[in-house]
Amino acid sequence: MKTIEFPPLQQAHKKHHPLTIALHWGTVLCIVIAVGSILFRDALGDKFWRILLLEVHRQCGLLIMLAVAARLYVRQRHGMANHMKGMPPLLQWAAKAAHWMLYAALVALPLLGWAATNAHNVGVRLFGLIPLPWITEVDSEWADTLTDYHSLGAWILLGMVVMHVGAALFHHFIRRDAVLWAMLPDKTAKLPELAPSALRGRREIAK
Ligand code: HEM
Ligand code: HEM
């Protein structure tokens, strides 16, 4: 049996579009800052810092929502590098469903936070400057309900992120394919030593 090698794997496997990579890791950073600022705020008594950290939280949350719109646009224009060849159909379906659920959470959560803010009779300004429309009525009970939904949503997002990161590590270390590598910004990052299943479709076996 003779094995014909096709172009070097580093070339055969494509990274995601640089904007997709930048927006993905930019979103991760914004989530870390948004969650960090709101948790840190709880530990502080000083009014000035509490107001400042809540504003940091709101601005990061709004940026996340803008980043989702930009990601979907880049995805539509340039597509995503596809490393699903050779993956069982159920796994492919699960990956797609998980990504769309993450997008949905990244839009729903900021909207709930925005609505909760308005219901507390506080306006929301993008970058602290551009006034955004009011999306709900002012009512303190409704505001508390929206805040409860917002914090429940944050827990759900956290659960999804844990599974998502687990899946990325599973791909890299167990399945040994190029899925995580394609999302890493470092151009010099080396491809993992790929498992045979990840090579399917990239290498032809000639008899
Ligand atoms: C993906 C983006 C966001 C995440 C992950 C997130 C997460 C959180 C978390 C974990 C809390 C604490 C909940 C608790 O104490 O039980 C919180 C509270 C809150 N968030 Fe967000 N949030 C996001 C976006 C936003 C946005 C865009 C706004 C407003 C424009 C906002 C407004 C608020 C408000 C008003 C609170 C309640 C603060 C308080 O009363 O102590 N959030 N958020
Ligand atoms: C706050 C945390 C995160 C969120 C909300 C998130 C969200 C997403 C979303 C929506 C996608 C779909 C494609 C896109 O639009 O970019 C994606 C792809 C991806 N993410 Fe994340 N991500 C997070 C953290 C991470 C971390 C920490 C890792 C690595 C350990 C990671 C690895 C990946 C990989 C490898 C892909 C590409 C999957 C594929 O090609 O099918 N993500 N992420």
Q: How are the secondary structure elements laid out?
A:
Elements: E1 2-4, H1 9-12, H2 18-42, H3 47-78, H4 89-119, E2 125-126, E3 130-131, H5 140-175, H6 196-199, E4 204-206
Antiparallel strand pairs: 1-4, 2-3
Helix pairs in contact: 2-3, 3-4, 4-5
Bound molecules: protoporphyrin IX containing FE (2 copies).
Query: Average pLDDT across residues?
Result: 87
CATH superfamily: Transmembrane di-heme cytochromes, Chain C
Unreliable stretches covering 5 or more consecutive residues: 1-11, 201-207
Q: How can the largest sheet be summarized?
A: 2 strands, antiparallel
Q: What is the SS-derived class?
A: mainly alpha
Through-space gap between termini: 5 Å
How much of the sequence lies in strands comes to under 5%
β-strand number: 4
List ligands, each type once.
Answer: protoporphyrin IX containing FE
Radius of gyration: 21 Å
What does this molecule look like?
- Strands 1-4 form a two-stranded antiparallel ribbon.
- By secondary structure, the chain is mainly alpha-helical.
- It contains 6 helices and 4 strands, in the order βααααββααβ.
- The chain has one domain: Fumarate Reductase Cytochrome B subunit, CATH 1.20.950.
- The N terminus and C terminus are likely disordered.
- The N and C termini lie close together (about 5 Å).
- The longest helix has about 35 residues.
- β2 and β3 form a beta hairpin.
- The radius of gyration is 21 Å and the shape is elongated.
- α2 runs antiparallel to α3 and α4 runs antiparallel to α5.
- Helix content is about 65%, strand content about 5%.
- One protoporphyrin IX containing FE binds next to α2, α4 and α5.
- The site of one protoporphyrin IX containing FE has 23 residues, from α2, α3, α4 and α5.
